[in-house]
Specification:
Number of strands: 29
Strand order of the largest sheet: 25-26-27-28-29
CATH architecture of one domain: 7 Propeller
Structural class: mainly beta
Helix content: 10-25%
Strand content: 35-45%
CATH superfamily of one domain: YVTN repeat-like/Quinoprotein amine dehydrogenase
Length: 393
């Protein structure tokens, strides 16, 4: 090849390289402009949307179910793609029988904790500004709710941020606990019945006894108090030792109290004698007594990742079974009056467990409200799930 031909070949190759680079830049610019145009349309329209991938990073802050076990409500946090962006805190209403979930679109109130009334007609929401707000149905609405559908009524304001809310089992009292105070109101009149101060836990805890007369709440640092809801009289003071309490529960008969603390211990005390009955290392974030008081459930990280639920004999501390199946930690547990145990994990999946049979009944994703899909799965067995089960408790 002559010198002239070699120069011509180099120039041809250079022209092709420049043309390829130019076309690549043009295509990239077109893609960027299309994405910008889409973002601009969403910005001008004020639409809030979130991708399924981001919503899968959901964080569960609180979970409460009604007395009939039909409705549940939770406070969730997730990342949102919108003109405002950032982390969103919202409240989700769950139809546990119909396996559906609908957001209330109340992020503007900055919800922190929630509770649903035993009669399934009121949702109470504790907000970061110290306000307690309520929403009354319609719970049976099948269509999705929009922000214009939900109007929260201001119930009261407390001097500290409410960390947890609870209705009494009879529905006549509403209580809120924060870092410094525990308040009790008559419901639905809103009359303030009790205001108790305490030295505080990093996050408050609150639990009613089954007959609605007694409340377990923080006391001095390292202590918990059982007291009469109507008179404020202290019945028993429990010293739960080092570490702050992340969750607590009192048994329906008000004879036992369970504490999950920040250093991984699950402790159960007698509220009759004040003595510690047993202690287990679980690293759980939630505790729940069964309606008959026989069993105590707590969550626990799984060795291979994900989460599981451990079920203990409430009196002896013997571990009865392990309920596995969650792909993420499940920091919220709740028993329904019929004995069904609900566990709620950080991927937004609620699983229902039959503890007598030690098996899962069904599960569904609460993220279904963010897509057109309904993720619901029945138990695989065709027969009665308890029939011929050899591992009953």
């Amino acid at each position: 090849m002559t010198k002239r031909n070699r120069g011509l070949a180099r120039r041809t190759l250079l022209r092709r390289a420049v043309r390829f680079a130019f076309l690549t830049c043009v295509f990239s610019l077109v893609i960027v402009l299309m994405a910008f145009a889409e973002a601009l349309v969403l910005w001008l329209g004020g639409n809030d949307f979130a991708s399924k991938a981001l919503l899968n990073k959901i964080s569960i802050g609180d979970f409460s179910i009604s007395a009939n076990g039909e409705w549940g409500v939770s406070r969730v946090s997730f990342t949102r793609k919108s003109r405002r962006g950032g982390v969103v805190h919202d409240v989700i209403v769950h139809n546990l029988r119909g396996q559906s979930a609908v957001p209330l679109h109340v992020s503007r109130y900055r919800p922190r904790c929630v509770a649903v009334s035993p009669t399934s007609d009121v949702v109470a929401i504790g907000c970061w500004d110290g306000s307690i707000r309520t929403w009354s149905g319609p719970f049976d609405r099948e269509a999705g709710l929009s922000a214009s559908d939900v109007r929260l009524r201001l119930h009261d304001r407390v001097p500290d941020h409410p960390a947890c809310l609870a209705f009494s089992p009879d529905g006549r009292l509403l209580a809120a606990s924060g870092m410094r105070f525990t308040h009790v109101w008559r419901w639905p009149s809103g009359e303030l019945l009790q205001k108790r101060s305490h030295d505080g836990d990093l996050q408050g805890f609150l639990s009613f006894s089954g007959e609605s007369r007694r409340i377990l709440s923080p006391g001095a640092i390292g202590e918990a108090c059982l007291w009469e809801a109507h008179t404020g009289q202290t019945i028993r003071v429990i010293s739960h030792g080092d570490g702050y309490v992340v969750d607590a529960a009192v048994s329906p008969d008000a004879r036992l109290a369970a504490f999950a603390d920040s250093i991984g211990r699950l402790r159960v005390y007698s509220l009759v004698s004040g003595e510690e009955l047993w202690c287990q290392s679980t690293w759980g974030r939630s505790v729940a007594f069964s309606p008959d008081g026989r069993f105590l459930a707590t969550d626990c990280p799984a060795a291979g990742g994900g989460g599981r639920v451990n079920l203990y004999d409430a009196t002896s501390g013997q571990r009865m079974c392990e309920l596995a199946g969650h792909d993420a930690l499940c920091p919220r547990l709740a028993f329904a009056p019929d004995g069904l145990l609900y566990s709620y994990d950080q991927l937004g999946v609620i699983r229902a467990w039959n503890v007598e049979c030690q098996r899962e009944q069904w599960y569904f994703s609460t993220l279904a409200w963010a897509s057109d899909n309904q993720f619901f799965h029945e138990a695989s067995e065709q027969d009665d799930p308890c029939r011929d089960h050899n591992d009953r408790l």
